[in-house]
């Protein structure tokens, strides 16, 4: 670890775990067509599988996740997905339907946080999206996610971005 990096706090780890679960839940929601309530119930009903690595075991991730944030992210994206998609479309280089399902889940989550969770700094939203894409997305997907969220931040958080870039 370099001198600038530090271990994430327990609260940061809890929020990251909530976002990881939310991305997986959003992916499942899109792929199965189940209601978000059903998807969330499946996640909350998971039992531990000792044969899985801790980071792959939803039950273990749920133990450290901020469950209120997990719920807020799932229901927020589901409740605002049409507005989120309208905000995303102008900054994409392809149709929403042509995006990788994981990258779309990450972009929807990031867009929700940029638009509706103003207490989260835009740079934190972008960083979290990039880290999620590195963990779950295609090999170079994190670069695409970074570019899209950066463009969205400039649109949705213009004054915050401008103040930061001075």
| Helix and strand composition category | mainly alpha
Largest sheet properties: none
Which blocks of ≥5 consecutive residues have pLDDT under 50?
none
Mean pLDDT over all positions: 90
**What is the CA–CA distance across the termini?**
29 Å
Number of alpha- plus pi-helical segments: 8
The helix fraction, in percent, is 55-70%
The fraction of residues in strands falls at under 5%
Q: Give the H and E element order.
A: HHHHHHHH
Number-wise, the strands total: 0
From the spread of the alpha carbons, the general shape counts as globular
- The rounded Rg comes to 16 Å
Give a brief outline of the structure.
The chain has about 170 residues and is mainly α. Helices cover about 70% and strands about 0% of the residues.
């Amino acid at each position: 670890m370099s001198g600038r990096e530090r271990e994430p706090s327990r609260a940061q780890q809890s929020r990251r775990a909530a976002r990881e679960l939310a991305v997986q839940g959003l992916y499942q929601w899109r792929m199965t067509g189940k209601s978000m309530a059903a998807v969330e119930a499946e996640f909350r009903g998971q039992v531990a599988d000792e044969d899985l690595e801790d980071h792959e075991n939803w039950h273990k991730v749920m133990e450290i996740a901020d469950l209120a944030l997990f719920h807020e992210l799932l229901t927020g994206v589901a409740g605002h997905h049409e507005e989120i998609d309208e905000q995303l479309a102008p900054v994409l280089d392809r149709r929403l339907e042509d995006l990788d399902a994981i990258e779309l889940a990450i972009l929807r989550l990031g867009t929700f946080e940029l638009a509706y969770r103003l207490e989260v700094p835009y740079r934190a939203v972008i960083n979290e999206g990039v880290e999620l894409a590195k963990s779950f997305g295609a090999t170079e997907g994190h670069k695409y996610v970074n570019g899209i969220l950066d463009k969205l931040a400039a649109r949705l958080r213009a004054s915050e971005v401008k103040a930061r870039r001075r």
